[in-house]
Write a structure and sequence with these properties.
Length: 256
């Protein structure tokens, strides 16, 4: 199975990019983040023409996640279990089952807006995610978790000087919360196959970040042991960031 993730920064602006990439790569499942539309406005027809069904958790103008699948797919959760009603209000989580494997697509809060409470909400979200994934792993469910985590796990995951030490993506508490996910027994698929060197998934639209290759690694794919031992590919499709009117993120792709 090949599964991918892509923060598209508006699916209506990036539909042609996504369709062209799907035609070329043909993953079984593609998770999308920041679709920025409610479910009725999602362009299902174009993806259906390629053989992909769409499951959508939408929100007007902000956030929003979706799964495109060319294999039978069952929705398990449309929001992250364990969150308060307020923390779960944003459309950030979609959990499905395909081919006997549990697949999670997520868009984790950035944490830089909303002051201290905004950052606290990010950490609450990560704690709820850890608790939920711990239950799935304890039940020995084959599991892959993909998406925009809005965390640079280490200093090797951002170009020097791109972010200040107080940025929510690199604060010690954010990195500790990410490590807590790994310590559950999950494998960081991208780093498993490319353990060293730049592996950016995001380049800001500002300050010439793309032409200067001043990026971040904030999109991740975490695999349970049964999938990690079969990991065959894990890469960033960085050429997509260089296309005209591209998203500021590139897709990531894993296969086992």
């Amino acid at each position: 199975m090949r599964v991918a993730s892509w923060n598209v920064n508006s699916i209506r602006a990036r539909e042609a990019h996504v369709r062209a990439w799907l035609e070329r790569e043909k993953p079984e499942v593609l998770f999308l983040q920041e679709i920025k539309c409610e479910e009725p406005a999602f362009p299902r027809e174009g993806f259906a023409a390629l053989g992909y069904q769409a499951e959508v958790v939408g929100q007007k103008s902000y956030n929003g996640v979706a799964a495109l699948a060319r294999v039978p797919l069952r929705v398990v959760e449309r929001s992250l279990p364990g969150l308060s009603e307020a923390d779960a209000a944003a459309a950030r989580y979609l959990e499905v089952e395909a081919g006997g494997t549990r697949l999670v697509g997520l868009y984790l809060p950035n944490g830089n807006s909303g002051g201290a409470e905004g950052y606290a909400a990010k950490l609450r979200w990560m704690e709820a995610l850890r608790d939920h994934l711990a239950g799935l792993l304890a039940a020995e469910v084959p599991l892959a978790v993909l998406g925009d985590f809005n965390v640079c796990p280490t200093e090797a995951d951002l170009a020097p000087g791109v972010l200040g030490a107080d940025d929510a993506l690199v604060r010690p508490e954010s990195r500790a919360a990410f490590r807590a996910l790994i310590w559950l027994g999950l494998t960081d698929a991208l780093r498993a196959l490319t353990p060293e060197g730049p592996l950016w998934t995001f380049w800001d639209y500002q300050a010439g970040a793309w032409p200067r290759d001043r990026g971040l690694r904030i999109d991740h794919a975490l695999l349970s042991p049964t999938l990690a031992e079969r990991l065959a590919e894990a890469r960033v499709e960085r050429d997509e960031r260089g296309r005209e009117k591209a998203s500021d993120h590139a897709p990531i792709l894993v296969g086992w």
